[in-house]
Amino acid sequence: MLEQARKLLQQYYGYSAFRNGQEQAIQSVLSGNDTLTVMPTGGGKSICYQIPALVFEGTTIVISPLISLMKDQVDALLQVGIPAAYINSSITAAESRERIQKAKQGEYKLLYIAPERLESYDFMEHLKELDIPLLAVDEAHCISQWGHDFRPSYQRIQRMVQVLPQKPIVIALTATATPRVRYDICESLNIDENNTVLTGFERENLSFSVIRGQDRLRYLKDFLKKNEKEAGIIYAATRKNVDQLYEHLQKSGIAVSRYHAGMSDVERMEQQEEFLQDRTAVMVATSAFGMGIDKSNIRYVIHYQLTKNMESYYQEAGRAGRDGLPSECILLYSSQDVQVQRFLIDQSSEQHRMSSELEKLQQMVDYCHTESCLQSKIVHYFSEAESPPCGRCGNCTDSRETMDVTREAQIVLSCIVRMGQKRFGKTIIAQVLTASRNKKVFELGFERLPTYGMLKDQSAKDVTDLIEFLISQELIAVDHGTFPTLYVKEKGREVLVGKETVYRKEAVRTKQV
Ligand code: ADP
Ligand code: ZN
User: Fold this and answer.
1) Minimum-distance ligand to the CA of 374?
2) What is the dihedral of CA 409, 413, 419, 423, to 10 degrees?
3) What is the pLDDT of residues 342-387, one digit of tens each?
4) Closest Cα to residue 19, out of 377, 324, 387, 381?
5) Fewer C-beta within 10 Å: the chain N or C terminus?
6) Separation of 376 CA from ligand 2 center, angstroms?
7) CA 180 to centroid of ligand 2, rounded, Å
8) In 3D, which of 122, 77, 118 has the Cα closest to residue 97?
């Protein structure tokens, strides 16, 4: 059967070999096992269910959360001659009935449906009349409350499987591999955890870097000037940011497109086409851009602001270098953006999800402050695996001296202990350490602490940076109560008592203000 799969790969897709993980996933499904496939974005998940769909008799059902993605996938399949269709809220009831009829007659190899369909009694009754050998659950992390995109209707999938007259084989696919999410997927869909196909999360052609403490607009313009022949995406946090950047770059004579949800459909399509067909080199966009976009020659992805979590970051950054050639993923960090993200989480999240989202944001901030390999940090985040330094990222290639900062770290840690664990945030802690004359500091009597002013030769900003660094090293942790407060972790205690040493790259200090 694997031989047949390989022929189909060549025949329909024109590829001569499976990628890492694809063969294993296909083999597992063809042998009749329910399977979880975890691959990074761009890893080639679609083929893992599309090829088995071609091998099996009947219609494979694909559950997919994004309407735009469904259409793209179906268009791509039709183009290579694989009969497929989708049913979601973008089509009329009459069209939907027609497609169901055709599905019953076995006219499609693949039928994409939105998870919300499973809430319709009528639709479920229709499904029972189909011959369904395989059920593919795309973006399966939507099942988990711990994922970054929880969808309640995903939790109905298992019930659907149970009411079908013939139990289909189930393949779940996601790019999120945290053990908790993996566990939830397997639990919810009744997949044996041993049937997990997990490929490496490294993308060997990508080099990651984080730029801190620089004029972002100037950095961006310099970068674009040096790379004017290359295609790239610049992600900004809000529509307003996108519009501003777009205008700035256009004025500087750069051929640029833009994309965000505030534009009309027509305008968005036009701008997207311009970029896809290489008429413009640069796309400035919000996170609304990129799903289902298959442009292989993207040489860089720059984030003008940090994202709300690592999942979004890796998904967006991962759009660079799909053709396998060296590409750059750059994040421009500014601490104010963390406040903006925190505010957005406050505004939009349900109460019970808030702390998990703030925790994810903190991990993103840690990524921005770590001095170890960024690629390894990402791999560890997604799979808890250890990997050797990549040798390519901004941190691996950072040639600054490494300094022993144990003494400074001890001062910070001891100041936190003295001010009270889980009571204060980093701003006031930095103020105390730099001998601020702020009213609140005096009201609380902190000017009498022995650590008051012990780092006063540094600016409050430098000390805040140092605190962020110590958080990224897991010496200090953030408690997300009504507002974020700090406390010293076990590893921090070891530093305090002199059992552990702390190293940091020679600081690039901002001027005392
Ligand atoms: P994902 O869903 O994991 O993000 P896709 O399924 O969209 O990834 O695949 C990403 C890209 O890789 C697509 O352009 C696809 O055609 C290509 N691709 C997938 N499998 C192979 C393969 N075996 N050989 C070469 N290219 C592949
Ligand atoms: Zn590295």
Assistant:
1) 2
2) 110
3) 888 888 767 777 888 899 999 999 999 999 999 999 988 887 778 8
4) 324
5) C
6) 6
7) 26
8) 122
CA separation, residue 8 to residues 173, 285, 391 (Å): 21, 36, 37
Mean pLDDT over 280-299 rounds to 90
Choose among 315, 357, 314, 319: nearest CA to 338.
Answer: 357
Tell how far the Cα of 44 is from the centroid of ligand 1, in angstroms. Answer: 3
Q: What share of the chain is helix, strand, coil (3-state, %, to 5)?
A: 45, 15, 40
Residue 270 CA: distances (Å) to CA of 206, 237, 262, 266: 29, 22, 14, 6
pLDDT at 509 over 70: no
Place of tokens 């990222």: 393
Residues with CB under 6 A from ligand 1: 15, 18-19, 22, 39, 41-47, 294, 322
Give the E-state strand segments of 287-439 in sequence order. Answer: 298-303, 327-333, 402-404
What are the b/e assignments for 441-463, b being 16+ CB within 10 Å?
beebebeebebbebbeebbbbbb
Q: What is the pLDDT of residues 233-247, one digit of tens each?
A: 999 999 999 999 999
User: Which atom of ligand 1 lies nearest, measured to the CA of 296?
Assistant: 14
C-alpha 208 – ligand 2 centre gap (Å): 7
Task: For residue 146, name the pLDDT band (cuts at 50, 70, 90).
Answer: confident
Q: Report the atom number in ligand 1 closest to the C-alpha of 17.
A: 23
CA pair distance 235, 255, nearest whole angstrom:
16
Task: Give residue 387 CA to ligand 2 midpoint distance, Å.
Answer: 10
What pLDDT does 508 receive? 57
Please report, for residues 88, 306, 346, 365, 395, the alpha-carbon distance to residue 368 in angstroms, rounded to integers and kept in the order given: 39, 8, 21, 5, 11
**Shortest-distance ligand to the CA of residue 290:** 1
Vertex 13 angle, CA 9 and 15, to 5°: 65
Report yes or no: 223 and 344 within 8 Å, Cβ to Cβ: no
Ligand nearest to the CA of 62: 1
Averaged pLDDT score across all residues of the chain: 91
Express each pLDDT in 397-423 by its tens digit. Answer: 998 888 899 999 999 999 999 999 999
Q: Are 214 and 420 in contact (CB under 8 A)?
A: no
